[in-house]
Write a structure and sequence with these properties.
Largest sheet: 7 strands, mixed
CATH superfamily of the largest domain: Response regulator
CATH class of the largest domain: Alpha Beta
Distance between the termini: 55 Å
Strand order of the largest sheet: 7-6-8-9-10-14-15
Amino acid sequence: MQQKVNSRRFALKALTAAVALSTLTAFPAYAADTIKVGILHSLSGTMAISETVLKDTVLMAIDEINAKGGVMGKMLEPVVVDPASNWPLFAEKTKQLLGQDKVAVIFGCWTSVSRKSVLPVVEEMNGLLFYPVQYEGEELSKNVFYTGAAPNQQAIPAVDYLMSKEGGGAKRWVLLGTDYVYPRTTNKILRAYLKSKGVKDTDIDEKYTPFGHSDYQTIVADVKKFSAGGKTAVVSTINGDSNVPFYKELGNAGLKAKDVPVVAFSVGEEELRGVDTKPLVGHLAAWNYFMSIKNPDNTAFIKKWSDYAKAKKLPGADKPLTNDPMEATYIGINMWKQAVEKAKSTDTDKVIAAMAGQTFKAPSGILSKMDEKNHHLHKSVFIGEVKADGQFNVVWKTPGPVKAKPWSPYIEGNDKKPDEPVAK
């Protein structure tokens, strides 16, 4: 029965995405002299559970900017495409956005495999991509601004916390992820980091499942067995709708956070929507923003989003949620606007130069800064525990913003790589 409900839920999501696409023509009519903005997020397929809301976040920001007079007196015109969780299609849609639609900037991608698909296209066509999700690092491009976290702004602090006394003092590690570049590279970094802390190979178990995987019974049973050998923590880099069956199976197996804590890097408020979170209480997520953070900027951001979701009758508008990639998306488009106004131009190279050192008061409560050189934001790190209502209780945070290290020091040869994009 649960399976049927689940399938129905995803069918409804797909239907909602299709309806959203069919109503794109309902955008207001724009004058010829507008600035076109590309939105490149999966509105169908396995990643729609995470990405659809980012499309809506960009549209909300565009409405807000236009209501205040636009950018350099011009209205922003969104061009929305659906690459449908199909990685090569991300490259095709990017060519369309830059070549045919002539967008000034693209906000998009979630998975690293989609970003890697887009990267050669934006570099070759000298486009501009704002990428809003935590990732594995090991990349720098003059044509990309990374507004999500690098590993030292999420993965490393999370492992440090789990090793600490307050985090439970983990000695054994299960590195569990979806089988693609982000989890594999992140786990390569974490394995090297754990080794540097004296953890033996026999105390690390690495496992991968394909996108859209739904049967986690065997894996969770293996985790349970492995944990009998000493205090164990699970680092989850599972992406997309596979998180729903994974967390359900954790609950079914009675694997509680006090026994084997799971820290997730791709599970936030949106992914926990529709999951019974009671059995998951105490499990962790590491991000640079949580909806539950209390400060005036976050209160304003949540209200803005709630009002927008209700006005547009978005799916889930009865329970509007904000999350980390939404915050990173919102910071990105506002910084881009500031850079265009500083450069007095939407020319890619001029905007890139103007982006260096841009600041924006972030909903997380910090003054977010784009690094002067490395195209990454300085970000605070928060670790939150899942609460019964699907929100997070922040249990640990950095004293202030952390500068990103795109090239992890735990990968050999990275010390020789420059901390700024090299023109190709």
